[in-house]
Structure formats: C-alpha cells, structure tokens
Specification:
It is a single chain. By secondary structure, this protein is of the alpha+beta class. The chain has two domains: about 25-170, no CATH class; about 185-235. About 25% of the residues lie in helices and about 25% in strands. The chain has helices at about 90-100, 135-145, 185-195, 200-210, 225-240; strands at about 25-30, 35-40, 45-50, 65-75, 80-85, 110-115, 125-130. Strands 1, 2, 3, 4, 5, 6 and 7 form a seven-stranded antiparallel β-sheet that branches. Strand 4 and strand 5 (about 80-85) form a beta hairpin. The chain is elongated, with a radius of gyration of 27 Å. It starts with about 20 loop residues before the first strand and ends with a helix.
Length: about 240
C-alpha cells in the first residue's frame, strides 16, 4: 500500500489575495487600481481613501502606508486574485512603465515582480514582458469571479456575491473615441502656414474643400487626416520660397 496515490497533487492555495513570494511572481494586471492609505488596528488592516489619510497611525511602530490594489491573474496559481502593493520600488517601476510610450498602461503585457531578501533587506524589481493579448481563460475567470475592490475600504470581502456593482476589467471599459475634428490649436497653426504660402492660397484650399464631397466649409471642420494632408502640401509649397 502506498502512502499517497500516484496521481496526487497538493491542492492550490484558495486564498483570494496574492502574496509576493521569493523569486519571480508573474502576473497580468486586469483592472485599474483603487488607491489610498493603510493603517493597522489590532493586527487588522484599515484602508482609507486618498482624501481621508489619518493624521497619525494607530500603532507608532507601523506608519500609515500608501497602497495600490488591483485585480491580477496569478500565473503560478492560475487564478484571479487581488494584489495590494505598498512597496515604493514596485509602484515606482510600474508608474515609470505607464509613462513610457513603448510600454504604456500594464494591461497589454505581463510582468514579473522579483522579490529577493528578507525583512528590511528585501528588494523588488519589476520586469515587463513582451506585449500580448490576455487569454480567453483569464477573461472567463475574471467574469466568473467578480470582485468589488471598493469593499476593502469598509473591510468587506470584495469577492462576496452580495455586491451589486463590481470592479470592471480593463477589457470591459469603453475606450475613448478619437476626435473627428482638429483642435483649435491645429486650426490656428494651419492658418499661419496657409497665409505664409502667399496670395489667395487659403481661399483656393477652402474652395476646393467646399466643392469636394467632404462637406467642409471652414478649417475648423477638418478631420485629422485632411489636416495632415493639407499641412504637408502647404509646407511643400513653401519649400521653393525658403530655399
């Protein structure tokens, strides 16, 4: 008789909260974060919104800390979890990626958070991975395990079925529509360029637009695509005079 069956596998951790382990922690961030302040009272975390920061911590040995909390896909656990970040290094690295035009918001790529050391000597590093789409399984599990992050401000269970509203995944949020008209600044810039072309060049351009099928009466009606074409043509016309 064997002590364990041949196909035995230890059950996965059922904890809905991700804890960063030593070494690599590979995740995909699936929601925008809630942000605020965390204090500890009788060994329990108490979270406050950004505009409600306590004047001082309940325990002088544990200062109030700024936090981000968001929903992630934990690759090691292969499940949806909530991850809270209070470490300045991690937040700084993710913020830098958001501001980098080659990376942007961390919804389109995975990242590895690497943890080394113990106690005050603990170090963290964030490595972004190549851009790629989330998998159907991630989306399916996200929608199956709905989470209300705002419940954490009231010490509630964000995964409780009682909530009427839930934190949306980034893939559920409506993307801002691109403007179909140029900005006022672009219009004024184009006017100056057309005037520099000399003569009645601006009038010729407007007459051409009115007689075309574009239904454009003034420069303010230009689409970004037409704006680029007219600006390029005007600058090219100015070249001989500048030579």
């Amino acid at each position: 008789m064997k002590f364990l069956p041949d196909n035995y596998q230890a059950p996965k951790n059922s904890n809905n909260y991700m804890k960063l382990q030593d070494g690599e922690n590979k995740i995909r961030i699936l929601s925008s974060p809630i942000v605020g302040w965390e204090d500890w009272i009788e060994s329990k975390p108490v979270r406050y919104r950004m505009d409600q920061k306590p004047c001082k911590s309940h325990d002088p040995k544990k200062p109030v800390r700024h936090f981000w909390t968001f929903i992630v896909w934990n690759y090691q656990e292969e499940r949806i979890q909530v991850l809270q970040i209070t470490q300045v290094t991690i937040r700084g690295n993710i913020e830098a990626l958001c501001k980098d035009e080659d990376w942007g918001d961390p919804f389109t790529y995975d990242m590895k958070i690497i943890r080394k050391g113990e106690g005050v000597d603990t170090e963290y590093m964030v490595n972004p991975l190549p851009h790629k789409e989330i998998t159907p399984k991630m989306k399916e599990e996200f929608l199956k395990n709905r989470c209300n992050l705002d419940a954490l401000f009231d010490n509630g269970d964000p995964f409780s079925p009682e909530w009427e509203t839930y934190t949306p995944g980034f893939f559920e949020q409506k993307q801002p529509e691109k403007s179909s008209k140029i900005t006022k600044e672009q219009m004024e810039e184009l006017k100056l360029i057309l005037v520099k072309c000399g003569g009645d060049y601006m009038t010729q351009v407007l007459n051409h637009l009115k007689n075309s099928s574009s239904n454009i009466e003034t420069l303010a009606d230009l689409t970004p695509a037409l704006y680029d074409k007219i600006k390029t043509a005007a600058l090219k016309k100015m070249e001989p005079a500048n030579a």
